[in-house]
Amino acid sequence: MLAAMKQRLTPRLPAWPEPQFGADEPLFDRFLLVLIFTLLFFGLMMVTSASMPEATRLTGNPLHFIYRQGFFVAVAVAIMAAISTIKIELWDRISFPIAVFALLLLIAVLVVGKTVNGAQRWIPLGIFNLQVAEVAKFCLFAFLAGYLVRRNQEVREHWLGFAKAGLVFAAFALLLLQQPDFGTVIVMLVTTGGMLFLAGARLIEFAVLIIAALVGVVGLVAGSPYRLARVQNFLDPWQDPFGNGYQLTQSLMAYGRGDWLGEGLGNSIQKLDYLPEAHTDFIAAVVGEELGFIGVATLLCLQLALALRALWIGHLALKQQQPFAGYWAYGIGIWFSFQTAVNIGASVGALPTKGLTLPLVSYGGSSLWVMSAAVAVLVRIDHERRVVQRQPLSRNTAPKEAT
Known about the structure:
The chain is mainly alpha-helical and 403 residues long. The protein is 70% helix and 3% strand. The chain has one domain (34-389). Strands 1-2-3 form a 3-stranded antiparallel β-sheet. A hairpin with a 2-residue loop joins strand 1 and strand 2.
């Protein structure tokens, strides 16, 4: 009965046609590349629009954040070009060492990290500050993909396989909570659970995980005044619109002014020092005000298409007997979709504020670079699958030698 229930709960991916390769077919997913660069361009455009008032107030130069974001995007493209040349087999071999490296970074940030708004999440590296949590997400999901390959039978048949993955997640979570970075812990929890589910873990383990997660979240919220205040503000931001509920009420006003078609690109009022973090965590509110419901819906469709494409790439990789690549692609798809949901959900008041960026869109170097590396991994996974799929065709269609 549990097996039948799990089969019904397993997500059905959209039936994109599986490509049939000929000699002139591309070896890269062009649709995926279009999605990536569309989101990068859209993000640069919206950061340009949303950041000018803040840049003028802080530096006197309205183009300050635009220049920086342009640099971040250029480096992101270089990172994608470099990462897309690395074989997935190499990532499989180093998945454990990079997880250890990420844990060391999480320890280092607690010692030498830079504190901003009460959170110690960044390691200063001169021209930019490295947000270690972003690197940790990338490394943890790579490790879990390797773990699910090595311990697949144990994960499917014994609670120890599930528990070992949970302990690794717990090590990351405990260090992240010291920063504190509750939002990243939630993203990691959901993505880890999703990867284990798709790898075939039993439902009873998920029931225990959900109960433990709920108890942990309630305990963390109740034991932290600032988290409790966020939840209270989320429930009724209008009871203190000029205090603790200020950011959310300003965000809601931005969405309200946008209506269906928006006020026009560049015409946001809320970004004029009313809405805090307009070019970072709350950039979706500026999109809503300037481009309206149509603009936000388009942005959500692009993000959803990217996440579904990642899941589809993972599905095809598993069919081609490339389990590490398949599980990692699943992890990236869940990561991107859930982080998008949390970011936009927080800006519309559907979820408490978490301080998570909008993938490939929000201002910032660390998040943009790590997520660019993640989508480059997707490009590489799909490329290797296409190469393998083309090889039998090449052998079967090769001209025979004259006898």
